[in-house]
Amino acid sequence: MDENARRGSMLEGYSYLKTIKSEDAKKIFLVINNQTKQICIEKVLKHGDAELYKRLKCIHDGIPEVYQVTEDDDDVIVIEEYIQSPTLEAYRIEHQLEEGEVIGIMHQLLNILMVLHASKPPIIHRDIKPENIFYNGYRVVLADFDIARSYKATQSKDTEVLGTLGYAAPEQFGFDETGVTADIYACGVLLNVLLTGELPYKKQAEGIYRKIITKATSSSPQDRYQSAQEMNNAFNRLSLPISLNFPSIPHPIKTILLVVYGLLMLAVTATMKTKEVTSAFGLLLYRFWIFFTLIYIPMCFLNTFDLYRFCLFKKNPHRILRIAGRVISLTFYWFVISVIMIAFF
């Protein structure tokens, strides 16, 4: 390997491990901090935006932590956190994403964008896609800010045509200046891809999320959601009273909460006594029925195991029918299991 390709090993305090990417405009290395022994990513960006990465250095959640930004002639050298999670693209290939998990991912991503867009001036990512998002089943990290930019209100259009075809908003192809709604456009495309596996122009999602996708991916920036908060609110309006669903709480955390609650309820029901049930087997079933009823409520409330995919009218665009479908379905499931158990009392 020539000396230029090994620049990652030449930065003071870091040792080169391997080359991840080597292009004229961008080189990416895996390096190790000689003092802390922490593995990091080093980027060497030709004509990179040093000021942008210095601003990103002040953001400590939802993006790879930026440790160091150095300017070297025409290059900008960035040392940032090495994220060991798979990309969202790799994750969705290996896992079947349920509707609840998709919405949880979108909530986390929009929360990250709220922080970026709230910067002065706003930081616009401009290349949101599954390959630039890390996801390990519960935490979303938005990465690759190499074509990100800061919004300039006096600029009539972008000076460079950048972005990934299919995810990039029309204005990124030179028709207008890129604003925060360009990221909203990409979020709409991403939502469609996560729900259907296809870009919107090939196949658009049906049901309750179609309206959100259509608005987010409007060709006119003025017709889209004007902020990540506004798009987040659109998801929140779809939430149902019988299910808070807590989309921002990762599924493993929901499972842990349910297990802790279950253990408490198991201890309570194990000590229950009743005069009506005389046989030991009947008493065991009675206790199990009480335990099941008590644990079933938070299971429905948290939607820990995505129970709503088994409910009636789950994709109906009308809110009242979705509510009715969940109430009827969840009550019916409880009733059937209860009848089966009570029959053995």
Can you walk through the features of this model?
- It is a single chain.
- This protein has helices at residues 50-56, 88-94, 99-117, 181-196, 210-216, 228-237, 251-270, 280-302, 319-342; strands at residues 14-22, 26-33, 39-46, 66-72, 75-81, 123-124, 133-135, 140-142, 149-150.
- The protein is globular and about 85 Å long.
- Helix content is 39%, strand content 14%.
- By secondary structure, the chain is an alpha+beta fold.
- It is built from nine helices and nine strands.
- It starts with 13 loop residues before the first strand and ends with a helix.
Give the key terms.
alpha+beta; Phosphorylase Kinase, domain 1; Transferase(Phosphotransferase), domain 1; 3 domains; 5-stranded antiparallel sheet; two-stranded antiparallel sheet; 9 helices; 9 strands; 39% helix; Ser_Thr_kinase
Summed up, what is this model?
With 345 residues, the protein is an alpha+beta fold.
- Residue share in helix: 25-40%
> CATH superfamily of the largest domain, called what?
Transferase(Phosphotransferase) domain 1
Number of strands: 9
Shape: globular
Strand content: 5-15%
Distance between the termini: 76 Å
Structural class: alpha+beta
N-to-C order of helices and strands: EEEHEEHHEEEEHHHHHH
Tally the helices: what do you get?
9
Round the Cα radius of gyration to an integer and report it: 25 Å
Q: Show unreliable segments.
A: 1-5, 153-157, 240-245
**Domain count:** 3
Strand count, sense and closure of the main sheet? 5 strands, antiparallel
Query: For the record, what CATH class of the largest domain applies?
Result: Mainly Alpha
CATH architecture of the largest domain: Orthogonal Bundle
Transmembrane segments: 255-272, 284-302, 323-344
GO molecular function: ATP binding; protein serine/threonine kinase activity
Keywords: Kinase, Membrane, Serine/threonine-protein kinase, Transferase, Transmembrane, Transmembrane helix
Domain Protein kinase: 1-254
